[in-house]
Design brief:
This protein is α+β, with helices and mostly antiparallel strands. The chain folds into two domains: 145 residues, Regulatory protein AraC (Jelly Rolls, Sandwich); 108 residues, Arc Repressor Mutant, subunit A (Orthogonal Bundle), CATH 1.10.10.60. The chain has a five-stranded antiparallel beta sheet with strand order 1-8-3-6-9. Helix 5 crosses helix 6. The longest helix is centred in the middle third of the chain and has 24 residues. One of its GO terms (molecular function) is sequence-specific DNA binding. This is Arabinose operon regulatory protein.
């Protein structure tokens, strides 16, 4: 399997994809924050949080970030595994899926393995990780099409994902789906197993963890970009989940990447 560019990108300024427009590999791209304007074979798509973009070898591709604060996961790859996956069914160019932390974790594992020196990489491990990612993407796309959860809850989740870096309130979520606050809170918890605040915090923590690994922003700036109102609040929530302070976590990750 050939892995090209793989990882997480966060654009704080306007950006245009700088490479040749005709792709020689598959591209799997998940918008996690902000928006992007994508041109594939002459057709324009605007991707927003939760939008999964699939591009195949030979397609003409352009990416433009017209407004800053845009984040995405991406994987350029090729090989028999991808060919077989693509041949198993018809997939939409852009599909709205849930931003599942487990999916992002798989993406991070692939990125870490692909960035190792070539003589330290495990081809078998990369292959299995990519296979697992493809299976999870297929399930997410099916979930998105069949609306396994009530559509109103999916609308709540999309609202939260779109506004996760803003200081929204539960009443804003309720207003977005035309329900009372009490009904919104009860239905979301019943279907997802999480409160609205817990779901928002899980995404914010994921965004913060990604930026700590892949950007040079200060911790205070990361807290702000991830939607936390204050750094002390971010520090407390982060330590509760990861067991260490953000600064310690970042230092440990940097040491691990240098090994």
């Amino acid at each position: 399997m050939e892995i090209g560019f793989c990882g997480y990108s966060y654009h704080t300024s306007t950006y245009t994809f700088p490479f040749a427009n005709r792709l020689g590999t598959y591209l799997i791209r998940l918008q996690t924050e902000g928006a992007a304007r994508v041109l594939v074979n002459g057709e324009t798509y605007v991707t927003r949080p939760g939008d999964l973009l699939l591009v195949t070898p030979g397609d003409y591709y352009e990416l433009n970030i017209d407004t800053p604060a845009s984040g995405d996961y991406h994987l350029f790859c090729a090989g028999p595994t991808l060919d077989a996956w693509w041949a198993t069914g018809t997939r939409s160019r852009v599909t709205s899926i849930s931003i599942d932390p487990r999916l992002l974790s798989l993406w991070q594992h692939i990125t870490e393995e692909a960035r190792r020196p070539v003589d330290e990489q495990s081809t078998a491990l990369i292959e299995k990780l990519v296979e697992a990612l493809l299976l999870m993407l297929d399930r997410s796309m099916v979930d998105g099409r069949t609306n396994i959860r009530p559509p109103v809850v999916s609308r709540m989740m999309r609202y939260i994902e779109r506004n996760v870096t803003a200081d929204f309130k539960i009443v804003d979520v309720a207003d977005a789906v035309d329900l009372s606050v009490s009904r919104t809170v009860h239905l979301f918890k019943e279907v997802t197993g999480m409160t609205i605040i817990e779901y928002a915090q899980s995404i914010r923590l994921q965004l913060a963890e990604e930026q700590m690994r892949y950007t040079q922003h200060s911790l205070e700036r990361i807290a702000e970009l991830s939607g936390f109102r204050t750094y002390p609040y971010f520090h407390r929530i982060f330590k509760r989940k990861y067991g260490v302070a953000p600064g310690v976590y970042r230092t440990l990750q940097q040491k691990n990447e240098k090994k």
